[in-house]
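From the methods appendix. Each design record in this collection lists the tokenized structure first, followed by the designed amino acid sequence. Records were kept in a plain field format so they could be parsed without special tools. The example shown here is representative of the layout used throughout.

RECORD:
FOLD TOKENS (329 positions):
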């Protein structure tokens, strides 16, 4: 198709503004240059980079209301709102989107301060700026387009769990790796410390609760990796009771016929399966076993010939190595 061009001098005194039109596109410039063939409206070709584009300025009242524009709502319409509409982000550029509302574009005043940047933000106010949602939808985190973490609107956090039932739920994937690994590289601290800070008195709270559904598993498993440790110095699992009243450092409960509350096992030639230590001035109990049914309070088993099943030792001048009571001893 042969193009037919029309050049029109709008105002020579204003510097020569040319409107060049063809059957396919329109160009507005100061030189009368032919508009770019790929653009239906070309404001760039022939200009010296000294002109800007000023869209319609309106006073939007609400991002869900098309007015004060007239006619049918059209996706892609761009305006500059001189007022801060309800549901919007203040004065600035807005476009009408496929979501049937005005969507905010950054203006000169906000610049990048209204967006979370991939290289970080400066000048944020923790009282008003946050990363999250303002509705009841969950906040999800992904890598490689796979969701790994979610925060529900009710506050529960799930890692590898899209519907966490607890404050923090971590679900292991396939494999033998631990669900959580916490390491302490300082020799005076602890890798994991859990406390129940509820008020004193009778209660059923606990610092850590662990259980296993496997027949050969363990709720809590402790392993000491140092081969030269001495007794009373290191422990794979250690429990301390600092209460001023009767309490227990470690408590094990078995609720079935063949279960074990606390199981200690040593595969070394001079190790201890379970050891209890009482270092107070007196009156304490190093290890206690209690049975309220027809079972056994403390059960010791040894399949080697050189040691006994149960050893009780008292290194003080007074005291008792083992104290046993009952109707059938």
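DESIGN:
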């Amino acid at each position: 198709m042969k193009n037919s061009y029309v050049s029109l001098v709008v105002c020579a005194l204003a510097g020569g503004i040319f409107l060049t039109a063809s059957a396919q596109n329109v160009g507005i410039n100061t030189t009368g240059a032919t508009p770019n063939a790929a653009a239906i409206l070309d404001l760039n070709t022939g200009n010296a980079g000294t002109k800007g584009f000023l869209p319609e300025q309106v006073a939007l009242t609400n991002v869900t209301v098309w007015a004060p524009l007239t006619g049918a709502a059209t996706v892609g319409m761009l305006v500059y709102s001189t007022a801060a509409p309800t549901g919007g982000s203040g004065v600035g550029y807005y476009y009408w989107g496929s979501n049937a509302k005005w969507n905010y574009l950054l203006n000169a005043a906000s610049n990048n301060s209204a967006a979370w940047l991939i290289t970080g933000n400066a000048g944020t106010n923790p009282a008003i700026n946050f990363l999250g949602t303002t509705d009841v939808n969950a906040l999800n985190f992904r890598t490689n387009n796979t969701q790994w973490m979610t925060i529900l609107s009710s506050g529960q956090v799930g890692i590898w769990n899209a519907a966490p039932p607890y404050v923090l739920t971590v679900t292991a994937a396939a494999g033998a790796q631990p669900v959580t690994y916490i390491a302490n590289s300082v020799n005076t601290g602890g890798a994991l410390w859990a406390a129940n800070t509820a008020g004193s008195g009778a209660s059923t709270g606990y610092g850590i609760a662990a259980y296993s559904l496997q027949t050969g598993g363990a709720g809590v498993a402790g392993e000491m990796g140092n081969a030269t440790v001495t007794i009373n110095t290191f422990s794979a699992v250690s429990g301390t009771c600092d209460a001023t009243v009767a309490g227990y450092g470690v408590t094990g409960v078995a609720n079935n016929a063949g279960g074990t509350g606390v199981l200690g096992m040593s595969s070394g030639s001079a190790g201890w399966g379970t050891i209890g230590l009482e270092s107070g001035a007196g009156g304490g109990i190093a290890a206690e076993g209690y049975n309220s049914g027809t079972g056994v309070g403390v059960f010791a088993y040894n399949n080697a010939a050189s040691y006994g099943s149960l050893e009780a030792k008292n290194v003080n001048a007074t005291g008792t190595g083992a104290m046993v009571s009952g109707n059938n001893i």
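APPENDIX NOTE: The radius of gyration is 38 Å.
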